[in-house]
Write a structure and sequence with these properties.
Elements: H1 9-15, H2 32-45, H3 59-71, H4 74-100
Helix pairs in contact: 2-3
Protein name: Transposase
Pfam family, one: DUF4096
Organism: Nostoc commune NIES-4072
């Protein structure tokens, strides 16, 4: 079961390298992608953290990562990269559109 806020495989390919690599002391229970999907679900729907659906990681885990990633600038880095890519796409389309009208 997926949510409209879940990242696609293509989006994940862009975002995953931007996430911090943590020393592995034990295998994680939840993947970073599942945690990010939990964060995005909460941000999109505006629900209380404690009201995240039960098939997402526990809200305490999701919120802890959200706080850490905000404090460490990880979410800003993701937004900057996504914004850069969108501007790049628009510029390419604009260039192609202008060349078609010459």
């Amino acid at each position: 079961m997926g949510y409209s806020s879940d990242v696609t495989d293509k989006e994940w390919g862009i975002i995953e390298p931007l996430l911090p690599i943590k020393k592995k002391t034990r295998p994680p229970v939840w993947t970073k992608r599942q945690i990010l999907n939990g964060i995005l679900y909460q941000l999109k729907n505006g629900c209380n953290w404690a009201n995240l659906p039960k098939d997402l990681p526990p809200y305490s885990t999701v919120f802890w990562h959200y706080k850490q990633w905000c404090e460490d600038g990880v979410l800003d880095k993701i937004m900057t990269e996504l914004h850069r890519r969108v501007r790049e796409q628009v510029k390419k389309k604009t260039t192609m559109d202008n060349s078609n009208h010459d």
